[in-house]
């Protein structure tokens, strides 16, 4: 892995949340920010506009499957039949950040996935409230400590044998998610085509090309956790 917790200097190396933007790091493919870009149609959110400039908007065309916009700049997925998705070219490796809270936890529910089948997905698994990033093979060991109904940033480095999952700025847990297909887009709140949806409330999602270093992740996580 390219991560190096020993190198963490205790401060955002790129200037802190007041001066840092996620777009300052190269390779930003998609950025969904719950404070902007929300289109509500009928019962819920039909479009969540991408703030990266790449036009990778998350969509949900079916009213019954739309999550609900919340007053704190977040979107709530009910864990039953709600998700959003978009297909776009997204070759691995990738780094995915999500600022969210788990409202409930159910073994095997999916918080996000790539469109490319078993490319990568953030999976509720093991014992509550453990999660792991998985792919074509088992994936890194699970992380615990993501308390229910508490916002946190989960970082997933999708990079074959050098993949990792991190809670906030804790020590990364590494492992091999296998080669598998490219992600080729993104599904939020469930697996591909809405399978095994999760009951989560999401404020921000950032998707980058490339496997981020610890310093890069420190900048992004500090930015997100200050929201």
Outline the structure in words.
- The protein is mostly beta strands and 227 residues long.
- The protein has a single domain, classed as Jelly Rolls.
- Helices cover 5% and strands 33% of the residues.
- It has one helix and 16 strands.
- It has one helix spanning 214-225, and strands at 28-33, 38-41, 44-48, 58-59, 68-70, 74-76, 84-86, 94-102, 110-114, 121-124, 131-134, 152-158, 163-167, 173-175, 186-188, 200-209.
- The strands form three sheets. Strands 1, 5, 6, 8, 12, 13, 14 and 16 form an eight-stranded antiparallel β-sheet that branches. It has a five-stranded antiparallel β-sheet with strand order 7-15-9-10-11, with no helix packed on it.
- β9 and β10 form a beta hairpin.
- The protein is globular.
- Mean pLDDT is 92; it is low at 1-17.
Short note summarizing the structure:
With 227 residues, the chain is mostly beta strands.
Write the layout of secondary structure elements.
Layout: E1 28-33, E2 38-41, E3 44-48, E4 58-59, E5 68-70, E6 74-76, E7 84-86, E8 94-102, E9 110-114, E10 121-124, E11 131-134, E12 152-158, E13 163-167, E14 173-175, E15 186-188, E16 200-209, H1 214-225
Antiparallel strand pairs: 1-16, 2-3, 3-4, 5-6, 6-16, 7-15, 8-12, 8-16, 9-10, 9-15, 10-11, 12-13, 13-14
């Amino acid at each position: 892995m390219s991560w190096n917790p020993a190198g963490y200097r205790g401060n955002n190396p790129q200037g802190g949340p007041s001066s840092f933007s996620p777009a300052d790091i190269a390779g930003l493919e998609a950025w969904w920010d719950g404070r902007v870009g929300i289109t509500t149609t009928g019962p819920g959110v039909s479009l969540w506009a991408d703030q990266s400039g790449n036009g990778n908007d998350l969509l949900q065309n079916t009213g019954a499957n739309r999550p609900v916009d919340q007053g704190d700049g977040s979107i709530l997925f009910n864990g039953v039949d709600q998700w959003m998705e978009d297909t776009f070219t997204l070759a691995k490796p990738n780094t995915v950040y999500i600022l969210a809270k788990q409202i409930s936890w159910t073994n095997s529910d999916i918080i996000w996935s790539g469109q490319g089948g078993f490319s990568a997905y953030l999976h509720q698994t093991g014992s509550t409230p453990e999660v792991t990033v998985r792919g074509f093979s088992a994936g890194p060991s699970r992380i615990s400590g993501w308390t229910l109904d508490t916002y946190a940033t989960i970082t997933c480095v999708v990079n074959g044998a050098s993949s990792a999952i991190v809670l906030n700025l804790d020590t990364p847990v590494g492992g091999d998610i296998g080669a598998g297909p490219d992600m080729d887009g993104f599904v939020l709140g469930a697996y591909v085509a809405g399978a095994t949806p999760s009951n989560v409330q999401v404020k921000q999602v950032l998707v980058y090309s490339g496997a981020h270093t610890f310093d890069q992740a420190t900048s992004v996580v500090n930015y997100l956790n200050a929201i």
